[in-house]
Amino acid sequence: MRILFTLFIAITLAACATTETTSQPPAAVEDRAPGTTAPGATARPVPGQPVTGVDLTAKPAATGAAALKDPNNILSKRSVYYDFDKFDVKEEYRRMIEAHARYLRENGTTRMLVQGNTDERGSREYNVALGQRRSESVKRMLMLLGGREDQIEAVSLGEEKPRATGSNEQAWAQNRRSDMLYPGEY
Amino acid sequence: MRTLLAATLLSFVACSAHAQLSIEITGAGAQRVPIAIAPFLGEGALPAGASASITSVVRADLERSGLFRRVEVPALVPRPTEASSVNYAEWKSRLADALVLGSVAARPDGRFEVRFRLHDVVKQVAIGGVAYTMTREQVRATAHRIADYIYEKLTGEKGVFSTRIAYVVKRGTRFELQIADADGANEQAMLVSEEPIISPAWSPNGRRIAYVSFQNKKPIVYVQDVEVPKQNIVANFKGSNSAPAWSPDGSRLAVVLSRDGNSQLYLINPDGSNSRRLSNSSGIDTEPYFSPDGQWIYFTSDRGGSPQIYRMPAAGGEAQRVTFEGSYNVSPRISPDGRSLAYIMRNGGKFQVALLDLTTRQVQILTDSDLDESPSFAPNGRQILLATVIGGRGVLSAVSADGRIKQRLTVTAGDVREPAWGPLVQ
Fold first, then answer.
1. Which value does ipTM take for this structure?
2. Which CATH architecture has domain A2-181?
3. CA closest to B199 among chain A residues
4. Which of A33, A125, A160 sits opposite B287 (nearest CB)?
């Protein structure tokens, strides 16, 4: 794990050295064992880990809890939304997750709870498992970007804690979601 | 065993009869046995506090089963009892095939003796009868026993009127894990929480219930004694812990844990010890359910690309796919005789209860509702209890295994969901 992590930072730094704005294919971080394929996801060989850039030239954000609550800081954003029955993290959420991974790196003692949620359709228990896949995919991405395993717990609330009530696509889209929460926020 | 006493978040309520389930029958069997149940002589002597009379509870039980039709009984003088000689021709002329006569008598010790006799009017013979001694609190329980006896004599199957059901009621932001008699009476809250409760499962002896509570902001599996208001943690590993299912001998629970990454099946002792991983797939494995012989575990998995039902040996081993029709088949429950599998099938945009005959592989859709969940067999296999949504509200519904008889159970001012039918009472 440590070797991998070091290697990863090296790759990230290299990526930053060449270009400031990185434009890479989406990091399809899936919840699965290496070398196996999971349904509804594209299989990728493990050696081809997606190269993800972290913009280290950006002004260091205010560390500490204040940054998390500053509406102008990306760290105040916490939610990742998903398509129906999907659990892959879309490209548009990468920058936010990178920021949180950096926050975890810089605040080594802080912890995070990632809660996965689903819409109301289907079995409650299956939705607990689907929500878990969603939170795990965020956790994996955070770890690839430098968060430590022991800092992050991924759990699922299934369909049990909907943010939006109502039985329509608008409400469902709000509820297919992972939230990244810090101590005191859950 | 690690235990957790009632926190401020939770409260245990010994008895709450504020909003009991009411039951409405929305279908009936094609052939119902016409049965005359004469008012039990002397039941007026029962305490006024009794919530119902023996006669009314027996009648309601049998009618609700959908297998009996009530024959009106005229005011008879003198009123007959179990000791009366029966004029079968007279009852035949009233078109009754079966007749129940009984009485209630106060005993010197303050208890009551209830006696009845069951007659086959067609064959013109008494076919059974029992005497019970009961306390004044046992009126309903005794009536259910009598209904069970009559049901078994006339249908050849065990009656389930004395059984209990568990379910979750959501009232506003509150979640209540409730236990009630099979007819909805005597509702009692086992657990009240501001956070969701799902997946109650009765232990085979009916003394304990395993369930999943989100009271600590994540799913954790607990076991709680029905009589003791104390939560015992079974599985609280990193990640999510859910979907408890008892082995038929009650010694083990199958649960779903995400502690090794993705949701997989594990076996664990009810005290939380000795956990062992059972399934090993790269996708979701969840909703385990033991076959009645304990040899197999049926479960839901998306390993083939869409959620389908599989089974694997309870000792571990290769999984076999069980459902093939449709792209979303979940929540497997095996019938008590092991011959059929009830589950939820997505049928067009609807989620409905399907029944698969495991021998012939025939699939029958039993319900015509849209959002069915959590099927649960009655312990005699005759009915399936389920959760559905009607008019935007969660209600419980029951359907006979042949799809003909339907009942609806509603509770005032609340959403009802997650039903689990308890075992036969010894």
1. 0.91
2. 2-Layer Sandwich (3.30)
3. A125
4. A125
